[in-house]
Amino acid sequence: MSRFLPVSNGRLFVAFDEHHRIHEFTYPHVGKENHAGPSGFRNGILVDGVFRWVTSTDLVSHRYKNRSLTGQVVFGWKTPRHLELVFEDWVDLDCDVFFRNVTIRNREESPLSCTLFFHQDFMIQYSDFGDTAVYLPKADALLHYKDDRYFLVALADEGHGQARMHAFACGKRHGDKEGTWRDAEDGELGGNPISQGAVDSIFSVKLMVDPGRELAFTIMTVCGTSRETVFDTLARVRKKTARVSRRQSEGFWNFWIDSHSIPLGMLSEKARALYEKSLLLLRTHWDDNGAVMAAIDSESLSFSRDTYAYLWPRDAAMMAYALDLAGFGDFTRKFYRLLPSLLSPQGFLHHKYHPTLSIGSSWHPSGISGAPLYPIQIDETALPIWALFEHFDRYRDLDTLRPIYHHFVLPAARFLTGFRDPKTGLPLPSYDLWEERAGVGTHSAASVYAGLLAASRFAKGFGDAREEEDFRVAAHEVRQGILNHLYDPKKEVFYRALVLSPDGNLVPDPTPDSSMAALFQFGVLSPQDARMVRTMDWLERCLWVPGPVGGIARYEKDPYYSQDSSVPGNPWVISTLWLLQWKILTSPSPVRDKGVQRMIDWTVEKGGTSGMLPEQVHPATGARLSVSPLAWSHAEWVIALSMLSKRESAGPHPWDDPL
């Protein structure tokens, strides 16, 4: 389950599979609705009477070009002719248009005649019911539409003059009909001008390329909510030209990255490149309305009939925190401004939200025997408060934050204060960050401590003395509860959680779990506290995956996508990066620390040539598992390198040996 090189403008989002077929085409929100059908948008080529679909076996390279959100993918063949096919993909900054510049390079000493085929597998608004595909000769374009969703596919009116739609077909793809892509395999297209129902379309471009030369043309997919809109947009972008659109896009993204660069000269070029790609990846998962998507990879539908294309408040808080560390506070405010509108009447944030901000799907029962009172993960209410204060501490944008304080921080912190056990001081049971167990998790409790402490600091700044005291005392009681009830004095490490037993009692869960890193991440203990050191050393011993793949498992005996009982679980990127962050904070010289360098190299390797960090990888092969890219993985990489940069700039810690 992998997607590569996503491109977006905050409304239109496009991503590709390993064969460079479009599989995510979401509009008018990032992550929703996905209009790409299950087979993807295929690309084919006919040379010397031999037809082939472009697949990953022909892949030469794939990367973002020039530190921008222009994906560049190169395919190459030596038989029957020596040639290269290059795709450069981007989304216009201002108009909802997906551009694809296609270049064919003739490496032979004789002329090359070839025909390229481009398939559209639109399944508009997640459904193949009632779509229409039609060829419009006046515009020399293919139009797919249903209701108020219109997608116009045309060639840019520029270039060398040869690139026109040579042939086309609109057809069915249901029952015994697989679609018009099958029509291409004999090198000819039937020319059917219109089809309705479950439909797709395809067109071809025929070129003659001189020896040792190349030819290029650009395809545009214009998105809109009416027929008039897409034609108006088509006229505008043809006047603007694709060349100008790409220059503006690449210039903007270069400017965006350079505007807040951090000193990473001590790192390898690959590590620095992954940092920049991570910034771009985080940006692509942000909708214009402020909603932040965890991942946009519809392949997960085959696993659960649901996707990761939701706003999880926890994931979003970590993504916003990462971009805040990188200097993009003006951008992250979009998310923070959403928080008051997402808050429930009780004062908590729900499990997750759609890109349209309605409440998302869930699997958390509540209010029944053995289940928590509310179907929530308490860290998802606490961490946005913490991230918001970290944002304010850097940017001091008081006027922006004042209404968020009154309409989100205060009611959410009051809920956190009241949602606690008066005997232990700990939060009442909710679901853990892994969304699997009901109880009082160490990660959850540490998050609540951080959220309440941040709320107390906000209240002090706004002159709310009573609230400041209430939140500060509650935070102190949560911390004491963690130290008194979530610490195993015999093993001298922390429990993962107090979990709900069948009889409704809370019992310790001693499972090694990487999320215990929250204790230093959110300030319950300093990184060098003896209890923290023992716990992190223990987690590394228990959860490091043996063998050449390495990495840290999420927790011991993790079953998610795992079938190998000989390892603690599949290596997770965020789990490995949490250990990296701890080593950065505790090493006397992290840049020269072999353990730090090992995990930096591990992360770069898992990103591959495209720089897409997955959720987890196979413990034996290193293959990507679950969704990829996962935005949280990229956020933790940005956080880790920001920590490293800060450590190197600050010099030795007070507890470091200066010798």
SSE topology sketch:
Blueprint: E1 4-8, E2 13-16, E3 22-29, E4 32-34, E5 43-47, E6 50-53, E7 59-64, E8 71-77, E9 83-91, E10 97-106, E11 112-120, E12 131-136, E13 141-146, E14 149-155, E15 167-172, E16 194-197, E17 199-209, E18 214-224, H1 227-240, H2 242-258, H3 269-284, H4 301-304, H5 313-325, H6 329-342, H7 379-395, H8 398-418, E19 430-431, E20 438-441, H9 442-461, H10 465-485, E21 487-488, E22 493-494, E23 497-500, E24 506-509, H11 518-521, H12 530-543, E25 552-553, E26 571-572, H13 573-586, H14 594-607, E27 616-617, E28 624-625, H15 631-650
Antiparallel strand pairs: 1-2, 2-3, 3-4, 5-6, 5-11, 7-8, 8-9, 9-10, 10-18, 11-17, 12-13, 12-16, 13-14, 14-18, 15-17, 19-20, 20-23, 21-22, 23-24, 25-26, 27-28
Helix pairs in contact: 3-15, 5-6, 5-7, 5-15, 6-8, 7-8, 7-9, 8-9, 8-10, 9-10, 13-14, 13-15
